[in-house]
Amino acid sequence: RGHRRQRDAAVLASRAEAEQRRIAETVTDFVVNDLMSGGDPVEGETGTSFETVIDSAMQSVGSRFAGIPGYQARMQYAFGRSYLNLGIVDKAQPPLEDARRLLDSVGDRTSDLSINVDLALAEVLWRQHRAEDYLPRLKQILDGLVAQRGPQDVLVLNVQNQYGNALKNSGRLDEAQAIYEQVIAGRSRVLGA
User: Fold this and answer.
1) How many CB atoms lie within 10 A of CB 121?
2) Taking CA atoms, which of 33, 81, 98, 140 is between 20 and 30 Å from 113?
3) pTM score, two decimals?
């Protein structure tokens, strides 16, 4: 009986290892063949813009990571976040929305990836000059994080600081100051300083 359990555990471990190997090979193949070969440089130019690389790589994410929604979501988030970092807000929103949809399909509303997707989608609102939508959305994310992780979590404090920045940038200085004071007190408790 003990040998059978050990054998069953070994079989499960072997299957899990094979699945992780398959995913790693898929990711490697995607990076090498889709991401790093994306777009053809214009004649006479020495390279391709990062935007073109992302545009090209996005075409194959669904097929490369079919059946692995968590990885699809992670890639879509990476593309959306990259577009945001490049200041290309109109292209950032669709992959971020795809990432949110994929995470929802597997019931993920609480992982760090899920939270980062929500924060990036909120940032899209800010960059679209929609502070009236951004502030309530950011507050909703913050309230959910506090309920989930407690007020002394480092991510909660970072989002709380981000919320203070948004209030300050919207001219709501008294509210921002109160938030900043909470963040400083929380960080002092967390870091012991």
Assistant:
1) 21
2) 33
3) 0.74
